Structure formats: structure tokens, C-alpha cells
Amino acid sequence: MINTDSTLHIEKVTSTRVGEVDFDNLVFGKTFTDHMFECEYKNGAWQRPTIKPYGPMLVYPGMKVFHYGQAVFEGMKAYKDENDDVFLFRPEQNLERINKSSKRMAIPEFPKEIFLEALNELVRLDKDWIQKGDGNSLYIRPFAIATEVGVSASPSKEYKFMILLSPVQAYYKGFVKVLIAEKYSRSADGGVGAAKAAGNYGAQFYPTSLAQEKGFQQIIWTDSNEHKYLEEAGTMNVFFRINDTLITAPTSDRILDGITRKSILDLAKHNGVNVDVRKLTVSELIAAAEDGSLKEIFGAGTAAVVSFISHFGFKDKIYELKEQSDSFAVMFKKQLNDIQYNISEDPFGWRKKVELF
Amino acid sequence: MINTDSTLHIEKVTSTRVGEVDFDNLVFGKTFTDHMFECEYKNGAWQRPTIKPYGPMLVYPGMKVFHYGQAVFEGMKAYKDENDDVFLFRPEQNLERINKSSKRMAIPEFPKEIFLEALNELVRLDKDWIQKGDGNSLYIRPFAIATEVGVSASPSKEYKFMILLSPVQAYYKGFVKVLIAEKYSRSADGGVGAAKAAGNYGAQFYPTSLAQEKGFQQIIWTDSNEHKYLEEAGTMNVFFRINDTLITAPTSDRILDGITRKSILDLAKHNGVNVDVRKLTVSELIAAAEDGSLKEIFGAGTAAVVSFISHFGFKDKIYELKEQSDSFAVMFKKQLNDIQYNISEDPFGWRKKVELF
Ligand SMILES: Cc1ncc(COP(=O)(O)O)c(C=O)c1O
Ligand SMILES: Cc1ncc(COP(=O)(O)O)c(C=O)c1O
């Protein structure tokens, strides 16, 4: 349901702020580019899609998103190569996923053509904000929020779909220590864990802060029923290498269908790596750590691409992972990077060039 | 952690909007009074508490509440008696609960004295918005939202605690049909179901809309593991009367500790009703419906007070409940109402008079 006026309206800044930015000291997600995208939904239709100067907006405190968390988001990136060409990575996957998330959260789906056009145009306008070089990229945050004013727990009739751009460096630096969840959980069967619903993330802050007090950066969530199966981390899917087999949990109601995850699964096949998509139990993991067959654990997600996990904690014991000379994580990270930054061929057709002129 | 300047600052409207309101045709939660309360949290402390004219606020689209649902709320009411005295119902319980919710959502707790003072002052200022008469009240919505700008999934360092007031009539009219959840779920063990976290509510909209398409108004949630135990409804705890015993689920990680629920449990004891706080299974319920021992089901929550449930659906079958001449629901609703509106004695000390002058 699109309104008749679906032509992208563009209102440019009069002068750019890009010169004021210290690109060597960016805090992830804190700096925003000159422009943002916004499209309102009301009277049963998406209204005129608009790119306009990044800035604050006037909202009422009774807006439903504040009270009922009716909100979804995405995370994606644009990369610049040595020739100043700019690329997106599987952008249609993010659109598909935000629409899946929206459906679960009773938010109207957003039209594909408008999304892709807005994305291209926005990145084009703010291309000078994208730095070249390893780890540098433009983080792209599409999101939708319930904007109807009303403090009764029912779906909003009005929404805003927006896209923000934020220049970033690598997300996690170095190795990550993770704690395996025994008490708290991330999502329920039949719940919204498979959606990038805003509330899933806020709900993790407290248990994650408890893990951080113990010296871990992240939690690896387990199923909420028995805390028996390894699921995923805060904003990453998780891979385990036991001997030479790469294992990751199947997606489900509770687990986000990560684009990095599915790309790594394809890369693994491409590289002839033995892949096993199955539920791995915590006790299998412990046994493999103890008998030395556990070689690697790594996280996979857009923000960090691949995160090397050096330690995991479970029930007051800490298990260390040795660096592997033939690391899968290193290999996948490089291969993904090379595709994303237009360094290598892209046999999968994942890279989408942004039309800059 | 309160800042030194914790004196309540008050900025009044120049003229009231109360004359413009059609109090006989209120939509729940859509009309707001002249004033609202706001207190910011930054630099590790709550800043100056302020009552000011209700109105919009300027916020950035990168604010964490939009992206990570880091938000909690409460729902309470003020009631006016025939002498124009105004009463709150167990307000300290709501403060305690929002602070419990906040803790689970990594939001700093709000100071009790400031909350109670602000509440009294706000209700006092807008007392003309409270209508007398059965079902009429002033709905009070305290809430806290994460206001730091930053699209990275970590707790906000800045918050707003606000209170909105909204004049309301009775919430649900008549009888309610409920559907027992078989597939979707509301919360997980170890999750945030026991908190009034914003995201819990948005997550129910889609499954509830599916139930509504089948002719039900609400879902009765069951446990996410087996869908075996009856838990609670969207914004109500649920009571079952089998023969003359009143049964309700124990509170847990997954179930909100409702103030109406606990008040009804006290009233039941006071009335000599046999109470059984235990997990009731769906199959027990069906059996009781079939052999006629199931007499009543009702919801209990601030918005609706007591909701009479006339039908429940399970697996394509609909079960009807006959009206009882000695209805527990009717009795509890009247007793609660009489306490809330200062019609009867209040042996429990639940009623708190608002200091109006
Ligand atoms: C819960 C969760 N798991 C996994 C991921 C990884 O998904 P993707 O690779 O698409 O970024 C994300 C998103 O960043 C996430 O939020
Ligand atoms: C999930 C849920 N259960 C039950 C209730 C009832 O709680 P109370 O009686 O305190 O309003 C509420 C709040 O309204 C709720 O949100």
C-alpha cells in the first residue's frame, strides 16, 4: 500500500559537516551523516519518501513506540574500494528481513523499490563520509517505529520508516570472551527472537552487564527451556569448529537469520569445509573443549563481521581457545572482507554497486 | 543517585484545555491533561524533576529507545469520590514495580519521594480532568525511556522518566472472549515477562490480531515451553473459578505481578473464598469446562479492573461460561471499585488521598 506520491523527495543540507569528523576516533553508532531518510505511514499508506538533513524531530511522549516497543530495525553497511566506488552487501536481504520483522511486530511492510532507491540515493549523497581501508565502512540503520499517540496496548496506525547513516571503524577489536547463559534468556519459542524487534536488545542489557562484571564481553544465549542448546550472541550468530567441522545452530523462532551467517555457510561450502547446521549442546561443547577437538568459536554479524572468541565461560569455569594457524574465522573474515571491499571476485553476486553519479 | 536540585519545578499552562474535552466519548489513552511530569537522567544522576505543559518534545532519531526498546512503564489510576476528593490506589506498588522493571531493563531506578510528590502534584494540578461516576478515572502512565543517541546495542547513559495523565472511562465494555495460546508466546523463562518492559507489549500485537480475526479480543498466554500452563492475558492476570475455588497462576519470571491480582487475592481471603495459587493446566481447564465445574474466568488489571470472560477458545473449539448469580468477578469488581472510589471502608489501607490544596 503506497500512496500515489511515491517519488523520492530530496532536501539537501546547505553545507556538509563531514570536515568536522575525526574518522580515526569514531565511537560506533555515535556520528551521523548529513542526511537521513524518512517515510511516514498513515491513513493506511506509506506517504512521500523523503531524504532530508539529519536532525531532531518533534514527537509526543504518548507515541506508542515509547510504551509498547513496537519497533524493528536493520543493520547493514556500505564499503568503499580503492577507486572510490561504493558497494552494499546483499541489501535486498535486509529489506526482506525488516519486512519479516515488521510482520511479526504488526508493522506494515515497506516497499522494496522505495527502500532500494532511498538507500542508493542516501549513500550517494553522503558518499564522502565513507572512509576507505580495512574495517572502515558506513553503517546503515534502517528502522521503523510506531508513532501514533495513544497509551493503550494495541498496534499503532501510524509509523515512521527511517534510515540513518553512521561512519564506523571495526566494531569489536581483538578477541572476545563470552559467557554461556544458564539463567537468563533472550527469547522464547513462539516469541519475537527471530525478528530484529527493538525490545529483544534492551532485554539483553542487564544480563550482559552482569556478564561484563565477570569479565566477559558477550553472552552466548541458550534455549530458554533447558539452557541446553547453544543459540546465538547479542548481535551475532555463533559458529563452532570441532575438529574440521563447522557447526552452527539452525535458525528458528528464537534465532535471527543472520546474513553474515548465511554468507559464511555459503563460503564454507565454496571452500570445501564440512558444515553441520545442527543444535549443539553445551555439554558437547565442554567435552570438545576438554578433549581438544574444539578448535574455534566465532561470532558472525554485520557490525563485527567475524569476531574471534578467545575464551568462553560456563558455570564458573573458563575455557581458553588457542589461536589456529589455519583458522576458519580468519579465512572467512578475509574472504567476506575481500568481497565487501571489491578486492576479490564475487562468485555469489552479493556485492551491489551504488550508483554514485 | 539524585542530583542536588531535586526540588520539583512547576511550570503551569496559561489556560486549561479541559473545557474542550468530550468526557462521554473518550478513547482510552488518547486524551492527555494539561500537564506532564519529566525528569532527565544524565551524568549518572536524575536531574531536576519538572512538571510542565503537556506537549511534544524534540528528540533524535538515533535515540536508543527507538532501536533497542529500552523502556518500561506503569499503569495506575486516580479516582474521584462524590465530595471531589481524589484517591490513588496503592501507588507505592507501582513505583516499586517500575523500579523492578527498570532494573531488569538496565534503567536506573527512580527515587520514591520524587515519584510520590510528582504524582500528587500532577494529579492536584489536573484534578478537574477527573470525572466522578462508575468507571470514570484518570489513567496515570509513568514511563522511562532511553534517550541517549547511539545505534549500538548497549545500555543508554541517558533517560527520561515521565508521567502522563489521561482521563478514561471503563476500558473493556461487556464480556470478553479469549483464545488460549497454542503457538505464539509472550515471554520466556529468564526473560523480561515479569517486567513491564515496552517490548513485551508490541510483541503481542501480531498474535493478538490473529486471535481478533477469529473473533476473540484477547489471548490467554500459556508457558512457552509446552503451552500447557495458563499464565496471563495481554494486560491482565487471569483468575479461574472451579466450583468454589479461585485459582490463579503464581507469579514468575514470565508473569507480571499484578496489583489488581494481589488485591483480589487479599479480598478473596477477606471474603472467606478458597484460594489456590497454582499452575493450572489447559487440560484441567477443558475438563472443568466440560464437566461443568468451571464457573468463571476473569481478567484482573488496572485498566479494566475486572474483565468478565464469557467464552474461551482452544483448538477450534469454543467454550461458553454461564453468568453466575453469585459471581466472584462481580463481587471483587464491586469491592475494589468501592474501595477505589471511597464508597466503602478500606480495611487494607490501599487508598491514598491526594492532597488537593
Ligand atoms: C540477534 C542477532 N543475531 C545475529 C545477527 C547477525 O546478523 P547479520 O549477519 O545479518 O548482521 C544480528 C544482527 O546484527 C542480531 O541482531
Ligand atoms: C502483562 C500484564 N499482566 C497483568 C497486568 C495487571 O497488573 P495491574 O493489576 O498491576 O494493573 C498488567 C498491567 O496492567 C500487565 O501488563
Automatic annotation (TrEMBL), chains A, B:
Tell me which cofactor or cofactors this protein depends on: pyridoxal 5'-phosphate
What GO MF terms are annotated?
A: L-isoleucine-2-oxoglutarate transaminase activity; L-leucine-2-oxoglutarate transaminase activity; L-valine-2-oxoglutarate transaminase activity
Q: Does the keyword Transferase apply?
A: yes
User: What keywords does the record list, in alphabetical order?
Assistant: Amino-acid biosynthesis, Aminotransferase, Branched-chain amino acid biosynthesis, Pyridoxal phosphate, Transferase
**UniProt keyword Translocase, yes or no:** no
Pathway the protein acts in: Amino-acid biosynthesis; L-valine biosynthesis; L-valine from pyruvate: step 4/4; Amino-acid biosynthesis; L-leucine biosynthesis; L-leucine from 3-methyl-2-oxobutanoate: step 4/4; Amino-acid biosynthesis; L-isoleucine biosynthesis; L-isoleucine from 2-oxobutanoate: step 4/4
Summary of the function given for this chain in its UniProt record: Acts on leucine, isoleucine and valine.
Family affiliation: Belongs to the class-IV pyridoxal-phosphate-dependent aminotransferase family.
- The name of this protein is Branched-chain-amino-acid aminotransferase
